[in-house]
Amino acid sequence: MKRHNYKNLKIWNLGIEIVDDVFKLTDNFPNEERFGLVSQINRCTVSMPSNIAEGSARTDKSFSHFIDISLGSSFELETQLIIANKRKYITKEQLIKIEDKIAEFQKMTMSFQNKL
Fold first, then answer.
1. Domains of the chain, first to last
2. Least packed by Cβ within 10 Å: which of 31, 59, 98, 103?
């Protein structure tokens, strides 16, 4: 059975990059959001590359399921960042910049999943 080395996958590396970018953004959120929106944003962000890593040790069919979870987390993240922008925790420019990376992640991940 073929296994994927997740550290060599472009989608995993982009996911790690998004995690770093998002953690930098949430560092500037108000303290009262620490256990609310910040926690939720950070968890779904970490979920993106983590599910790719976990699924890489499975069969391709099972891996596809983990990729679905990773994609779901990326859409959840996007929604939460829109909320953060509406709450004025991040600027429109910051939102657009991270949304572009998330969209790239989603496109690359769906393409990878279709090839499994």
1. 6-115 (1.20.1440.60)
2. 31
